[in-house]
Design brief:
This protein is mainly beta and 796 residues long. The protein is built from eight helices and 47 strands. The chain is globular, with a radius of gyration of 33 Å. The N terminus is likely disordered. Keywords: Signal.
């Protein structure tokens, strides 16, 4: 009996051990599998916008270049063909909006800042329709300043109050009693800028437990071992002598602590300490940009475990490192940054360091992959502008945004600093940055429970999607419309049809629609109580990022006056040259292709009724009367008889019925195109098409059904041509037209050749000072880079 009892105990222990092994194996494979499943079929995008500068006057032009990349690979992505760009005021109200065409992940545009705009700080943001499925935290946002010198600005009382924000971040997430933790901290002013400080950590009995001071950008770290679960506090002394008292995060009696150390051997060591937790397996997962990099298991022995990871296993840039317990609960997390080598080295120089007024400047550009000798082709955007007390060098850059700013929440001060030389100082500052962003916006709860967000917005991979909502005024209609049509009147035929879904929404995939025009939306609704609302394509969700208070120091008055005069002079003398737009390359072939026959009505006898026109010289179309109305029938050459149903009738691209057409004045019609074949478009079948075009394509005097919705609608923005005067000859240089430009040059399309070389030329203005040339861009492989240099313009 005793032997059987021992056998039973051993069997039970073996079963529990096997169960634990299977469970551990399930965790090790289950979480990566769920991670892959969660991101399957999800290809998020990431936008970056390079603006020509970041300070503007009302009446100036704001120029920008858009880069669209795959958020996982950082390579140019040709998914979305439309980007939405907005300028928002401090209350998140849009003051400027534009739809920008994208091609192969790039696009460019401009805003003319109206003289009605108020002075202040504004937010420029950009996103795609596909990005609207995600949090607004993934939209591109940057601050710009606009000053209206033509409107009186009421100076508000300066806010001189010193308000600081202090936060502490234990490595891994939590402080645990009697376990040493690395604690990062950040101290910022009311504008989000880091401030220098010193401090001490005091126990509940006011005993000093640790001391610290900032290292870089208001951040630093210290080691701290909580002696009890009673909260400790930090006493912080600022550079101006003020002191701040701040309670540290709560201390737990049990839990896990992780510490990361970067070894000289090229490995990363992650030490895990568990207090008052069972010696069970813990699981370490590292992922970067939707790709799992590491999945390892270690068992706690006396509350200790150690993971050693080869840095070559980790992707470049930001890596999310998470520790799970055996119950698949995330218990510790932190970030690690591996300095990317996938960068584009951009170099440029001018043919002189100093120029006179109205002199030629030649900039030589070179692009290559980091550490490579040979050049590589790339596409860049270039801005050359004057530096003064108002306009400084923009700290934002394409590589800094892709690798850091877009991956972290909150303000990143001087992101370019972290990409400079790999010194011990920069490594420590980078690690502090990773620690203060600790548990970031990644949500494991959604991954583990496969709570994938529903995709409400489709990617616009072909054209702009105009979305409409069909509703009944009473809300209890029984016969809802099933079909809808959208027309854009004009010489270029634009007609689209679609089905209305069960939620009453209808989507029109509109292509090659530029500028502003009228759109007409119609449905097959019989009930006049149905209405159609064209939905706003711009996102109506906004981030909680607050713009800094706007203020203009008196020291900037002289520069402000000079810029204002320069802006007014340019608009007065060269205004027409600032409003030149490139003609877009669009397909002008109608959706039905080549018609069977084209009738130019001026080549025939002009009749006073449509019935006479069709009966006299359009044999393909028969006019029949039944049910008390006239109907058109198209001849089918295959069966040598007329179709039994009416054809699609269009007037300047607008669908009209027989009655409206027959009552229209034929003397206003210039051309008639006839399609005799059956036309099939998805679920729609038309037995022939007759398309009437007026002289101006503006449906002159056409009276549509009262249920039709007619409204002005902005299509894609036309590309404005950048104007820069040329002073090649002495006569041109001696022109008496003043030239006070502070933006000497802007080009969104500087392309280096296969050797990585390009040359750009422009001319200086009459304004002396220091100018900066800023280059940003990337190649087809996704290597991004930026560079700037300065030169002087004098009286010489």
């Amino acid at each position: 009996m005793k032997l059987n009892k021992h056998i039973h105990i051993i069997t039970t222990l073996l079963a529990l051990l096997l169960l634990n092994t299977i469970s551990a194996q399930d965790v090790l494979t289950g979480i990566p599998d769920r991670f892959k499943q969660y991101y399957a079929g999800n290809s998020p995008e990431k936008l970056y916008v390079h603006t020509d500068k970041n300070f503007y006057l009302a009446g100036e032009l704001l120029w920008f270049k858009i880069y669209n990349v795959d958020a996982a690979l950082y390579q140019p992505v040709d998914l979305s063909k439309i980007a939405y760009v907005e300028i928002l005021d401090k209350d998140n109200k849009p003051v400027m909006q534009a739809k920008i065409a994208l091609s192969k992940g790039k696009g460019n545009g401009s805003f003319y800042l109206p003289v009605s705009i108020n002075s202040g700080n504004y937010k420029l943001r950009a996103y795609t329709n596909w990005m609207k499925n995600l949090s607004v935290g993934y939209y591109f946002e940057k601050p710009i300043t606009i000053v209206n010198t033509l409107k009186t600005y009421s100076t508000q009382a300066a806010d001189t109050g010193n308000r600081y924000q202090v936060a502490f971040f234990p490595e891994g997430g939590n402080l645990v009693k009697a376990v040493t933790s690395k604690v990062a901290f950040r101290v910022t002013d009311r504008f989000g800028k880091g401030v220098h400080c010193k401090g001490v950590v005091l126990s509940a009995n006011n005993d000093t437990m640790a001391s610290f001071q900032t290292f870089k950008f208001g951040m630093g770290h210290f080691l701290f071992t909580p002696a009890s679960t009673q909260p400790a506090k930090a006493l912080i002394t600022l550079a101006d002598g003020n002191t701040i008292s701040q309670t540290l995060p709560a201390v737990y009696d049990e839990g896990y602590v992780m510490q990361l150390a970067e070894e000289a051997s090229g490995t990363i060591t992650i030490s895990v300490t568990g207090r008052s937790v069972p010696d069970q397996p813990v699981f370490l997962f590292a992922h970067s940009r939707q790709v799992m990099q590491v999945a390892e298991k270690q068992s706690l022995i006396n509350g200790q475990a150690r993971f050693v990871i080869d840095k070559n296993q980790l992707a470049e840039g930001l890596t999310n490192i998470t520790l799970f317990n055996e119950q698949q609960q995330p218990v510790c997390e932190r970030l690690y940054f591996k300095k990317p080598q996938q960068v584009l080295t951009v170099a440029a120089n001018s043919n002189a360091a100093q120029y006179g007024n109205r002199k030629r400047v030649a900039i030589s550009v070179n692009t290559r992959h980091a550490n490579a000798q040979a050049g590589t082709a790339a596409e860049l955007s270039l801005a050359v502008y004057r530096l003064d007390t108002l306009q400084t060098i923009d700290a934002n850059s394409l590589p800094g945004y892709l690798w850091l700013t877009s991956e972290l929440t909150g303000n990143i001060e001087s992101p370019e600093y972290y990409f400079s030389a790999a010194t011990d100082e920069i490594k420590e500052a980078t690690d502090n940055l990773m620690l203060v962003h600790g548990w970031r916006r990644f949500n494991w709860e959604q991954v583990l429970h496969d709570n994938r967000p529903a995709f409400e917005y489709a990617p616009e991979f072909d054209g702009h999607i105009i979305t409409c909502q069909v509703k009944h005024n009473t809300g209890n209609a029984t016969m809802a419309p099933e079909e809808a049509w959208l027309s854009i009147p004009g010489i270029q035929l634009q007609f689209y049809n679609s089905k209305i879904n069960k939620e009453g929404k209808v989507y029109f995939d509109v292509r090659d629609y530029y500028g502003q025009n009228e759109i007409i939306v119609q449905t097959d609704a019989v009930d006049s109580n149905f209405r159609v609302d064209v939905l706003n394509p711009f996102s109506e969700k906004y981030s909680d990022w607050q713009l800094p208070a706007f203020a203009l120091p008196r020291a900037t008055q002289q520069n402000l006056n000079e810029q204002s005069i320069g802006m007014q002079v340019l608009n007065t003398y060269e205004g027409s040259k600032l409003s030149r737009f490139a003609v877009p390359a669009i397909d002008t072939v109608p959706f039905y292709g080549k018609p069977f026959r084209v009738y130019m009505l001026d080549d025939y006898t002009r009749f006073t009724t449509m019935e006479e026109v069709l009966r006299e010289y359009v044999p393909e179309v028969a006019v029949r009367r039944y049910g008390g109305q006239l109907h058109l029938k198209m001849f089918d050459f295959d069966i040598r008889d007329f179709y039994s149903t009416d054809p699609l009738i269009l007037l300047d691209g607008v669908k009209v019925d027989n009655t409206i057409l027959m009552n229209y004045d034929p003397l206003k019609v210039n051309k008639l195109e006839v399609v005799t074949n059956k036309y099939i478009n998805g679920e729609f079948i038309y037995h022939g098409i007759v398309n009437f075009t007026t002289y101006h394509g503006d449906i002159q005097d056409l009276k549509l059904d009262s249920k039709a919705v007619i409204l002005d609608y902005d299509g894609l923005q036309l590309k404005r041509e950048f104007y820069s005067p040329v002073y090649k000859t002495e006569q041109q240089a001696l022109s008496r037209i003043p030239d006070f430009r502070n933006l000497l040059y802007w080009s969104p399309d500087v392309r280096t050749d296969s050797k990585g070389q390009a040359t750009v030329e422009f001319y200086t203005s009459d304004r002396k000072g220091k100018y900066v040339a800023v280059l940003q861009g990337m190649d087809d492989a996704g290597y991004a880079g930026s560079y700037y240099f300065t030169f002087d313009v004098t009286d010489k």
